Amino acid sequence: MSARQRTLGAYRLAVRLYPRRFREEYGPDLVALVTDQIRDEPTWRVLARTAIDLALTVPSRHLEAHMSRSATTVVPVIFGAVALSAVVVGVTVGSIGVLLPCLAVAVIAVSLALVSAHRARPLTERRPTTGNWWKLLGGGSVVLAVLIGTTNATGELPEGAWFVAMVTGLTGLTLIGAGIVLGIAHLSSRANRSTTG
Amino acid sequence: MPRSKPLPAASLHVVLALLDGELHGYALMRRVEELSGGAVRMGPGTLYGTLNRLVEGGLIEETTDRSPRTDNERRRYYDLTPAGRAVALDELRRLQTLVHRTAGHLPGAAPA
């Protein structure tokens, strides 16, 4: 058996280290590419470069495979369901001491749903982060409106609920502030692009 | 289409290499090496990992069955999608602007 055949045999075995899905999709192509390389370059050089490539890419392909399992639409839907459940529980119970913590949980769950939905988007749909300014502004306004509406409807806040109300109010104000800042940045970057373009 | 951040280095080299037309894996690897003056040598795992991400991202597509092939072995060909071509040209303009502006600030260079 020649050095070339031994190298190819070893590489065929090494390809099995990649995640199953990647291996099934690209395994024959990987081997074909190394076959082409060995035809055109010294075997020892191909062997050295391929060993380094394997050491770097096998862990990263496994990491990607793991990450892609969680970066699907399932995760935003789960967080959305948690937010909806929190609102339903809070409204059903009716007590301000339960409603405000539920509202806080809903705000956090909606934020996580937005973040996970953003991460799951394909490359072609990437947009500047500043383009989301209106979502923050709208979300903050909704949070504040719900908080004001709830406190008006229930009258004076019970003991201990003021802290949750304050955190919720601050969250709303932070979202509005972030929305305004990103909106200004977005508009100025658009103005710059139209000037330079 | 405005982009939030530049493409990663490997993806950038692949989309720029495909601007001239479709290529199969090995030809693409050689093209990237040629374009970078030998500075970028992608291994098989790096190349196909990058192709996988770009296909999933809709920037490139497999074009193997689009036209008859003369290769003895069946190879898989890849080409830019319209969105991928737009991104590649966008990246090219970004790099040209970067080089232009940087060169303008070098000592002894003519003002940009």
Structural class of chain B: mainly alpha
Main beta sheet of chain B: 3 strands, antiparallel
- Secondary-structure element order of chain B, N to C: HEHHEEH
Average pLDDT confidence of chain B is 87
Give the strand content of chain B.
5-15%
> Counting H and I runs of at least 4 residues, what is the number of helices of chain B?
4
Sheet with most strands of chain A: none
The separation of the N and C termini of chain A measures: 61 Å
Strand order of the largest sheet of chain B: 1-3-2
What do you see in this structure?
The complex is a heterodimer of chains A (about 200) and B (about 110). Helix content of chain A is about 85%, strand content about 0%. Chain A is built from seven helices and no strands. Chain A has helices at about 5-15, 20-40, 45-70, 75-95, 95-120, 135-155, 160-195. Chain B has about 110 residues and is mainly alpha-helical. Chain B contains four helices and three strands; from the N terminus they run H-E-H-H-E-E-H. Chain B has helices at about 10-15, 25-35, 45-55, 80-105, and strands at about 25, 60, 75-80. Chain B has a three-stranded antiparallel beta sheet. The longest helix of chain B is centred in the last third of the chain and has 24 residues, at about 80-105. Chain B is elongated, with a radius of gyration of 16 Å.
Which secondary structure elements does this structure contain, and how are they paired or packed?
The complex is a heterodimer of chains A (197) and B (112).
Chain A: H1 3-15, H2 20-40, H3 43-70, H4 74-93, H5 96-119, H6 133-154, H7 161-196
Helix pairs in contact in A: 1-2, 1-3, 2-3, 4-5, 5-7, 6-7
Chain B: H1 9-17, E1 23-24, H2 25-35, H3 44-56, E2 60-62, E3 77-80, H4 82-105
Helix pairs in contact in B: 1-2
